[in-house]
């Protein structure tokens, strides 16, 4: 009704327009009215009403957004070259209390390259990782020899005895997004490699002497490899997922310790 009244008003106004081959454009909200008049024929006027919405602003294209940035928490351990959880007798001093061997990663920076719309892309970034290997036996790692060695502490019972390794992590992952629920949610699949640089390592021990709590922390390299490379796979829904990681490089330097390959698995919470 308002549009009809508006057109009638325009018709009344256009009667006073005498410009030859003149075009007058009037806007009313999202509607446009073009009045084309001819001086030679004042009774001839063409009126064009355009109700289309002016789409000067293009639709925002959704960019590919990976699932690296966030927090990961789970368990970690190591396997032998035969992919066995059981260690040889000569290395059983490194057996773990698996439930208390915790992996924690915080991935603060993320970079994405979209390959196909917002469904497929490459993900990289930078993270900070912590591996806690809680020993099951009352041992103390030694650095006094040319090979990783240990002594058994028969005087004290350790409440906590673990090797802690911190590292910087850089991923190179391929990621796929599967839209569900009318594109409101996403299932994501990701796989690739992670390179890491060890920036710290120490043992942490807590025990009691005559009821008094004792604390010991020693910083050493423990013949650990300074560089490592791992494969990681992820699957998740929106911002919650699962991850599994296997380190191809050995935990210790060649001929300096047992041949062990770390692994980690747990939950990921994306930012």
Task: Summarize it.
The protein has 271 residues and is mainly beta. It contains one helix and 14 strands. It is elongated.
Name its key features:
14 strands; 271 residues; 2 domains; 1 helix; single chain; elongated; mainly beta
Question: How would you characterize this protein structure?
Answer:
This protein is mainly β. It has two domains: 18-54; 70-270. It is 5% helix and 58% strand. It contains one helix and 14 strands. The strands form three sheets. The chain has an eight-stranded antiparallel barrel. It has a three-stranded antiparallel beta sheet with strand order 1-2-3, with helices on one face. The longest helix is centred in the N-terminal third of the chain and has 13 residues, at 2-14. The protein is elongated, with a radius of gyration of 34 Å.
Oligomerization: single chain
**Count of all domains:** 2
Shape call = elongated
Report the end-to-end length measured between terminal Cα atoms: 50 Å
Average pLDDT value?
87
Q: Tell me what portion of residues adopts beta-strand conformation.
A: over 45%
Helices, by number, come to: 1
Integer-rounded radius of gyration:
34 Å
Q: Strand order within the widest sheet?
A: 4-5-6-9-10-12-13-14
H/E series: HEEEEEEEEEEEEEE
Q: Tell how many strands the DSSP assignment holds.
A: 14
Low-pLDDT stretches are: none
Q: SS-based structural class?
A: mainly beta
**Biggest sheet, open or closed, and with what strands and sense?**
8 strands, antiparallel, barrel
Which percent range fits the helix content?
A: under 10%
